[in-house]
User: Fold these one by one.
Assistant:
Number 1:
Amino acid sequence: MKANLIIKNIGNLVTMRGKKGPRVKEEMNNIEILKNAYIAIKDGKIVALGEGKFDEGLVGENTDIHDAKGLTVTPGLVDPHTHLVHGGSRENEFAMKISGVPYIEILKQGGGILSTVKSTKEASFEELYNKAKKSLDTMLTFGATTVEAKSGYGLDLDTEIKQLEVAKKLNEDHPVDIVSTFLGAHAVPKEYKENPDTFVDLVINEMLPKVKENNLAEFCDVFCEEGVFSVEQTREILQKSKELGYKVKLHADEIESIGGAELAGELKAISADHLMAASEEGMKLMAENGVIANLLPGTSFSLMKNYANARKMIEIGVPVSLSTDYNPGSCPTENIQFIMQLGSLGLKMTPNEVFTAVTINAAYAIDKGEEVGSIEIGKKADLVVFDAPNIEYIIYHFGINHVHKVYKEGKVVVEDRRTIY
Ligand code: IZC
Ligand code: ZN
């Protein structure tokens, strides 16, 4: 077989090859790094990899050969929790935030998520598309090649569908792969403040079936939090969504410990996200039921709050992934590398664990672990070439972009930190 492309002279090739399924405990730290390695690609997929000289039989007349110049190559990064599509921004709340007004208090006053709901309703499809595309380009230049995107700034069927249609079109037009999540239960709209259960019924009976009918979301998510949606309301929505064929995840125990992690275990959710206030009992239930802890340390940083107990989760066997949580309120950044640095500096994860958390475990957190998240034969040739001598350097030298090149399905899409697709 002749390859379309061979990347040679890779100083460190971080493969993330291993067992099927998310990595737990010491598996997160024991990663394979090949030295002086190569990767061969055909039709956007990986067909061979190894150390030393590649088999000359892979080289045909039309095979391109790229020299990685001894740099570090990893799988394309996966960002499994973003609020990518939204109107407006919330810097007008920044002074309030740094003066100590809590996130939930700003929401109760009609700001926060509800302010973004207003901007998103007012924005046209094109405005939302252009804004999200710009963010997606930024994500890609930092090395993310697969991204999850939630709705949740409509809280009415038409606007939720508008957001999901934008994500769908971007998935078609843009090199980054997008996995869509319906988050209709993101906040209680002002009109339902006095009767939130009526809104929950609307989500269950109207929105969930319509979004599914239009095939606009693979996942369903709920903001399960004190003062937003209770554990009972979340259970009702997610049980119904499972019956309709959605896979489920939840914003759990971000601010208060209300049993979100326990519910994630009970429902066998694919992931529970945030978990800054999760109980140890909840973590154990997650470990027993294979629920991935998708941790979002950028939110702890931006809200100036505590970090999730990642060490405890890893110790008891919860698979951990990391994500930006890119959103206009609690985490306005698209930069997955900064999140990785916080993974070490805030969550005390080793660089090896951090790379596991943004590649193979992140891929499983959006049920794409069989297609992306590692460099192995048959998977998409989504790769990042880092201008770094090893992976520790990428985490230690924080706040800058270490990307040299990004390949999406075997094509160069970022060069010199700029998109070139
Ligand atoms: O817009 O504030 N936590 N949802 C739950 C968010 C943060 C996004 C936002
Ligand atoms: Zn979120």
Number 2:
Amino acid sequence: MFCVYDLHSHSTASDGTLSPRALVQRAAEAGVEVLALTDHDTTAGIDEASEAAQSCGLVLIPGVEVSVSWNRQTVHLVGLNLDPHDSRLDAGLQKLRDFREWRAEEIGRRLDKAGISGAYEGALALAEGCLVSRTHFARFLVQSGIVEDERKVFKRFLVSGKPGHVPGEWASLEEAVGWIHAAGGQAVIAHPARYRMTRSKLRQLLKQFVALQGDGLEVVSGSHSRDDYVNMAKHARDFDLLASAGSDFHCPENPWIELGRLPRLPEGCKPVWQSWNLSAQTDLRSQLG
Ligand code: AMP
Ligand code: MN
Ligand code: MN
Ligand code: MN
């Protein structure tokens, strides 16, 4: 019934630059039929997105992207089709947001020592009262003319070993899967090819994820190559994981990652949406004509 799915996107509720409403409108214009809003560590944008989706004739899947620490590295889990107001999910995400607040101040202090003043205040202003991400620091440094582009800010200041890097613990894999399941959602490992793990390390992650009843793998991602689609489809099949597809759209300024341009899942993948009952939303669509 539906063909065009995009199950990974960001709004101003985390580090995207479009409001939830503007994001949904852009997705609908790009031909997306089913969109998941998956902001980092918050579901604060979902209500606005759901409301906008009704007037655009698009199905909005409530989601979240949870920051996880696994094996001394950061891994992201996308939670899909969940209750955005579940109290157990929110209590878990609140811990991550508290850590983010402290981390943002600490990044500011460290950048200050490195000779860049006002970065915390700058990032906070760009976050406009929503959670602060490293992306906001990157944008601030670019807008202040200190660094040419966001990628370079990460490389020079924000990644491990660089002056503004703050190590810390996010959720455990077990906690994150537990919170997503508590909210009735499906847990999906986001952009698996982005972690630069060896094949055996990735399979170790997948094995643990499956043991924790994890549900799926993001086979098609805006940051994956064609080879990645094929490899990740094989891993999904080997571990009997469902397959997801999401652009990871953050902003219109990045021409490489746009809504509604994803290829179909490779043959043999079981789509994560296969068990979803989208008929309630479909009824609404037909009522709207
Ligand atoms: P945080 O969750 O606050 O640590 O920020 C992570 C976010 O930063 C990711 O979701 C990306 O949107 C962005 N990001 C991470 N690495 C890079 C990079 N090398 N260049 C540009 N953006 C990045
Ligand atoms: Mn992001
Ligand atoms: Mn991510
Ligand atoms: Mn993302």
Number 3:
Amino acid sequence: MSFCGNHLLSVDDLTKEDLLYLFDIAELMRPYANREKQTKVLDGAILGNMFFEASTRTRVSFGCAFNLLGGFVRETVGIHTSSLAKGESLYDTAKVMSGYSDIIVMRHPEAGSVAEFAGASRVPVINGGDGANEHPSQALLDLFTIRKELQIQGSRLDHLSIAMIGDLKHGRTVHSLSRLLTLFDGIRFRFIAPSDLQLPEDTIQEIKARGHEVKLSENLEEGLADADIIYQTRIQEERFSSQAEADRYRGKFRINQHTYSQFCQQTTVIMHPLPRDSRADANELDSDLNENPRLAIFRQSDNGVLVRMALFATILGVEKEVQQYECPIRWQSSKQF
Ligand code: NCD
């Protein structure tokens, strides 16, 4: 796809060339994200940042990314404080909000809702997560991070082994990332989940049909054994019919430093889309891993800003002019990257 002027609704719209192009642009964004200099390339542009479901890092990093390019952000947060609570259709909301914005990011609890909204929008829409379906920008930042972590180790995306763990049925980040990885060669997928929470069958079949190796398991140790990347996830309790139902699965697959030392290679990279559920009865990624140099979770969240800046710049067609509108930073920034 060409990014310019288009929606980003599903990773299925992307080619390998798109990814590599976007990742090159994301790298160019680093000095701005690191506060070494600033750019005003989107001065005057308005982002409609519409989040109808809980979010911290996706909402804020999209907002920061737009601000870092010099644009303004208007936020709508929560269904109950928006006109959707008064019975307004997604069609009407899209017509109205796209009249106020140059680009929209939208998160919504129902699968397919962002595509429906985009169908009526007069400006490009980025899917910030639609129910249990997809989360394309998270998959892009995850893939960007995997590529970077592997590059540091002198290896490549092709033929990597990735263990995806947890609630693979409802985890939209897993759905998008696993599909995106199929664009590379010979990926070895290990999907570790209770059988009721396994990856949807159609996604498994699609991955296999594209020639990749798929192993399903309910056993954590078995799945970790040859993994280059661990992608741990949270039980998506908001997608279950009751809390009690979700609680049946919480805490089933925990990874801590002991598990890591026992079952992983020394180079295995540990990832999680975040938030990790740190409550005692869940604790899928223990805080005793915080000093483990292979824990990439905060590099993921930092990379989210770069990738989202690249998305805005390419969709709004200014990626070649970012440097032209740059200016110095006036304040003292002691932030460490
Ligand atoms: C994820 C999401 O919302 O799907 N979070 C995120 O956007 N980084 C994962 C999750 O909530 O578990």
